[in-house]
Amino acid sequence: MTKKKNNTLSVLLLLFRIVIPLLAALLIAVSIIIFAMFGKIWYLGVLLFGGAALVLWLYFPIRNSIWVRMDAGKAEPEKRKGLFQRNPNHIHESLLDTSLSVLNVVLLLAGVVIIVLPLLQYFSLAFNNGVFNLNIVLVPRVFSLEAFKYVLLGKFAADFWRAFGNSVLITVVITIGSNLVEAMAAYPLSKADCPFRSGIMMFFIITMLFSAGIMPIYLLMNALHLIDSLWSVVLISISNVTHLLYFKTFFEGISQDIEEAARLDGASEWQLFFRIIVPMSLPIIGSCCFFTIVGTWNGYGSALLFIHDSKSAVSQMPLAYYIYYFMNSSQAESKNEPWLQYNIENVQAAMMLLSIVPILCMYPYIVRYIKGGLQIGSVKG
Questions:
Q1: What tens digit of pLDDT does each residue of 119-166 get?
Q2: DSSP assignment of 178-214, as one string?
């Protein structure tokens, strides 16, 4: 009788574990379709999304209740892993733990929606004919590549490509220069016998926590004749104390025996650093380089401070700042061009999509270093 009961419960559990996630996925899919196709009844999509969250919330208690009934009478309850690969001993889980787990999943899904929906909006605008922008929600109504053609080959194409080249130059120089400076500064500070080590570290930490403000930096750049020059952006971004701390912690974890063996073989300090330490530090170097590249490519705060918002300074603008400048000045330019007047939002969206292409192309090649590099560089092993 007990065996037959367990078989019935097993079949019920199997159906339950298949039907409930499918139902939740269906509700989420339908809510996304409603958001995409029928923006005017967005509240129905929100209602269905909330229904999916409620279904997932009910999933865990009912599943655990079935497991408790299946394990009744057993000396040692069977250890199982649930839908989201959580702690195997589910039958001792409280309702609060289950609710928090479901809340984490719902918040994660909500974060994904918040991030993805604006990207889909800009994607649709970039590939849409500007005359039909009022009818667009998340899907292009009339597919068109005119916005990309205007950005790459149109009236302002030369300015766009010059800004693109400026961003490439700034990103390469800052990434190589800053990480080289930070690594070379962190290496001696990782040694216990470094003279004035504590004082130097305190100096770096103070500069990380406190700033003199914008005016002294602006006056310095003005004295160096770097106003309206992209080299002001390079100079102000060449150091990052946070990355220096990552490098220092990583270097402290490298065995001293390796360095002693290299010195016994006749290696100088420069050879030891560039031929031994740097190749062993590729995970932390890759992680710091990635964050430097993303921050530099997408940043325009420094350029906003030192490069004037005028036509005479367009040749010195990085890409992110040029897009900001174009969005502010294109309204006046569109009055003389009827096509641009109707497609201004599409052109702006096309620029934004083109600006993220280099980061997307680079990410797959460097992502393998990020997780390992930060884990090794954040905790001394």
A1: 777 888 888 887 776 655 667 777 888 888 888 888 888 888 999 999
A2: HHHHHHHHHHHHTSTT-TTHHHHHHHHHHHHH----H
This prediction's pTM: 0.68
DSSP type of residue 141: S
CA distance 367 to 381: 22
**Which structure tokens are listed for 192?**
């216990």
Spatial contact of 174 and 290, defined as CB atoms under 8 Å apart: no
Distance, CA of 269 to CA of 261 (rounded, Å): 13
- What span, in angstroms and rounded, lies between the C-alpha atoms of 282 and 238? 20
pLDDT tens track for 164-185? 999 999 999 999 999 998 999 8
* Segments of the chain with pLDDT less than 50: 1, 40, 82-91, 373-375, 377-381
Contact, 39 vs 60, CB < 8 A? no
State the Cα–Cα distance between residues 206 and 11, nearest whole angstrom.
64
Angle at 302 between CA 357 and CA 158, to 5 degrees: 50
Which residues have CB under 8 Å from 163's CB, separation 6+? Answer: 314, 317, 318, 319, 321, 322, 323
DSSP-derived 3-state class of residue 152:
helix
Q: How many CA atoms lie within 13 A of 187 on its CB side?
A: 18
- Please give the Cα distance from 244 to 181 (Å, whole number): 9
pLDDT attached to residue 381 = 41
Helices (H), the chain: 2-37, 42-70, 95-126, 146-153, 157-189, 197-209, 214-223, 230-236, 241-252, 256-264, 269-271, 278-280, 282-298, 301-306, 319-334, 338-378
DSSP state of 71: T
What is the Cα Rg of the chain in Å?
28
Catalogue all structural domains in the chain, each as residue range(s) with its CATH number: 2-144 (no CATH), 147-378 (1.10.3720.10)
